[in-house]
Amino acid sequence: MNYEEAMSFLDETKKYGIQPGLTGIRALMRELGDVQERIPIVHIAGTNGKGSVGAMLSSVHVESGYRTARFYSPDVFS
After folding, report:
1. Alpha carbons 54 and 35: distance in angstroms, whole number
2. Opening angle at CA 38, ends 35 and 39, nearest 5
3. CB 63 within 8 A of CB 75
4. C-alpha distance from residue 24 to each of 10, 30, 31, 37, 40 (Å)
5. CA distances (Å), origin 73, targets 11, 20, 35, 50
6. What is the DSSP secondary structure assignment for residue 73, as one 8-state letter?
7. pLDDT band at residue 78 using 50, 70 and 90 as cut-offs
8. What is the pLDDT at residue 64?
9. What's residue 77's pLDDT?
10. Which of the residues 16, 21, 29, 42 has an alpha carbon 20 to 30 A from that of 67?
11. What is the reported pLDDT for 11?
12. What integer pLDDT is reported at residue 72 of this predicted model?
């Protein structure tokens, strides 16, 4: 897929009401009372390095006196 094809695809999605960006999810979270602002959490996403980043952040927080936990999905052992 080249740039023109990608832009054409994004334009095509607009007729279905899909709009890239965070506007929709921000509106939803506002309706739910912005609960994400009251939960002390770090969400790590992406393709590579999540385990390493999670381990490093966990170590930093434990050394700073915080209790930590990590949850992986999908299970890294399956």
Report:
1. 22
2. 90
3. no
4. 16, 10, 11, 17, 23
5. 32, 24, 21, 11
6. S
7. low
8. 95
9. 59
10. 29
11. 84
12. 78
Secondary structure of 8-60 in HEC code, one letter for each residue: HHHHHHHHHCCCCCCHHHHHHHHHCCCHHHCCCCCCCCCCCCHHHHHHHHHHH
What is the sign, positive or negative, of the torsion defined by CA atoms of 54, 40, 77, 50?
negative
Q: Of 64 and 24, which is predicted with more confidence?
A: 64
Residue type, 33: G
Which residue has tokens 């509106």?
A: 27
Secondary structure class of 1 (helix, strand, coil): coil
Q: In which region does residue 73 sit, left (phi positive, over 0), alpha (psi from -120 to 50) or beta (all else)?
A: beta
